[in-house]
């Protein structure tokens, strides 16, 4: 939807999760920076979908908000709004 035109010319930061025992020790920032460094080396954008909590962190690191998508598992009532973000190399 948001990244289709990029095809495989992107570094998609698919799932970045940090175990709660490792949170607040910069592990998430280091993973994001790793993805950004690879995208810079390849001269392609880094493109994550972010949880609401992660959106502020991505914005702080220079990612641009593109829009939102609602995700819902079939048969479940709970929904999650995720944000499409991009960091241009």
What descriptive keywords fit this protein?
alpha+beta; N-acetyltransferase domain-containing protein; Acyl_CoA_acyltransferase; single chain; 89 residues; Aminopeptidase
List the SSEs and their pairings.
Elements lengths: L26 H16 L6 E2 L1 H9 L3 E8 L8 E7 L3
Q: Can you describe what's shown?
A:
The structure is a single chain. With 89 residues, this protein is α+β, with helices and mostly antiparallel strands. It contains two helices and three strands; from the N terminus they run H-E-H-E-E. A three-stranded antiparallel sheet has the order 1-3-2. The longest helix is centred in the middle third of the chain and has 16 residues. The radius of gyration is 14 Å and the shape is globular. The chain starts with 26 loop residues before the first helix and ends with a strand. The mean pLDDT is 87.
Query: Based on helices, strands and strand pairing, what is the structural class?
Result: alpha+beta
CATH superfamily: Gcn5-related N-acetyltransferase (GNAT)
Number of helical segments? 2
Measured on Cα atoms, how large is the radius of gyration? 14 Å
Q: What is the first-to-last residue Cα distance? A: 20 Å
Multimeric state: single chain
Rounded average pLDDT? 87
Q: How many β strands by DSSP?
A: 3
CATH architecture: 3-Layer(aba) Sandwich
Report the uncertain regions.
Answer: none
The geometry reads as globular
Share of helical residues: 25-40%
Series of secondary-structure elements, N-terminal to C-terminal: HEHEE
Q: For the record, what CATH class applies?
A: Alpha Beta
CATH level-3 fold name: Aminopeptidase
Largest sheet: 3 strands, antiparallel
Organism: Lineolata rhizophorae
Protein name: N-acetyltransferase domain-containing protein
InterPro entries: Acyl_CoA_acyltransferase
């Amino acid at each position: 939807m948001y990244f289709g035109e990029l095809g495989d010319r992107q570094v998609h930061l698919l799932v970045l999760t940090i175990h709660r025992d490792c949170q607040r020790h910069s592990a998430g920032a280091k993973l994001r920076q790793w993805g950004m460094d690879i995208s810079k080396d390849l001269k392609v954008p880094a493109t994550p979908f972010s949880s609401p909590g992660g959106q502020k962190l991505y914005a702080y690191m220079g990612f641009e908000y593109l829009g939102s998508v609602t995700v819902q598992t079939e048969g479940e009532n709970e929904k999650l709004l995720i944000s499409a973000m991009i960091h241009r190399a």
